[in-house]
Specification:
The chain is mainly beta. Strand 26 and strand 27 form a beta hairpin. The protein has no helices and 27 strands.
Length: about 270
């Protein structure tokens, strides 16, 4: 509904004093659909050819302020612009889908957050980054990029379903600290020509079995796992065509199957 959020388009940058978003955009006929919470901005066709706009740097931001007492489904689509979402402390969301064709995606959670639906991050050529602390992903997370790098960093989070991260030519970074899992899950990380670096620190009970699958074609796989627990069930399976697999030795872990499997002793 209209009173559930406000729309605040802003234009910032060099020589932007006195200008508003109407110098570059105009609202479409259906500026705001009250039933779905959808709004559209259309670019003015001649704005970028106006000589007064030449040799200037533009940073055009559409800011949407949401009420915190409403649980939202968020879908954000952009062709060439980046998407940057910061979820404030204690906010609960339903599903969230962020898609960009040529630019980056960033999703950060400040803490004590819950996603009741699916979390999907997808970019064709831009990088994808997500940082979360004390966040409950009840339906897991799916992060994809074709040529950009992918970085996922989770601290004290709860994962309720599979965690998937894939990139074609970019490098993939994954870091977790004291994760909890509500059921047995797959931790699937894939990169075709880029490498995979994964650091996992686990000093509390996972709550379920975790099977990690790492796959690359020509990149290397480097995995560091550390815990001080008596009973932890975790197994990582690495696969690469021409790259190397490097599992860091640890007292609670063993390396088997000619170096491709890295698992706890009691898995």
């Amino acid at each position: 509904k209209l009173n559930d959020f406000s729309i605040l388009p802003e234009v910032a940058g060099l020589y932007m004093e006195g200008k508003t978003y109407t110098d570059f955009f105009h609202p479409s006929t259906q500026w705001l659909d009250n039933t779905t919470g959808t709004f559209n901005l259309q670019a003015l066709p001649d704005a970028w050819f106006n000589p007064s706009h030449w040799f200037k740097s533009y940073n055009i931001t559409v800011a949407v302020t949401l009420r915190t007492d409403v649980v939202y489904d968020l879908t954000v689509l952009t062709a060439v612009g980046s998407i940057d979402i910061l979820v404030s402390d204690g906010v609960i969301l339903n599903g969230i889908s962020l898609t960009s064709s040529t630019s980056s995606i960033k999703l950060d959670m400040l803490g004590n957050n819950t996603f009741l639906g699916e979390v999907s991050l997808e970019s064709s050529t831009g990088r994808v980054d997500s940082f979360a602390t004390k966040t409950n992903f009840t339906h897991g997370i799916n992060a994809l990029t074709s040529t950009g790098r992918l970085a996922l960093n989770f601290t004290n989070c709860i994962m309720g379903d599979d965690l998937i991260g894939k990139t074609s030519t970019g490098h993939l970074y994954f870091k977790s600290y004291n994760m909890a899992y509500t059921k047995d899950i797959i931790l699937n990380l894939e990169s075709s020509t880029g490498g995979i670096d994964a650091d996992l620190y686990q000093y509390i009970s996972m709550g379920a079995n975790v099977t990690g699958t790492w796959e690359t074609s020509t990149g290397s796989i480097d995995v560091l796992y550390r815990d001080d627990l008596v009973n932890t069930n975790v197994r990582f399976i690495g696969s690469t065509t021409t790259g190397s697999i490097d599992y860091m030795d640890h007292a609670t872990m063993e390396i088997t199957s000619l170096g491709s499997i890295y698992s706890t002793l009691n898995y």
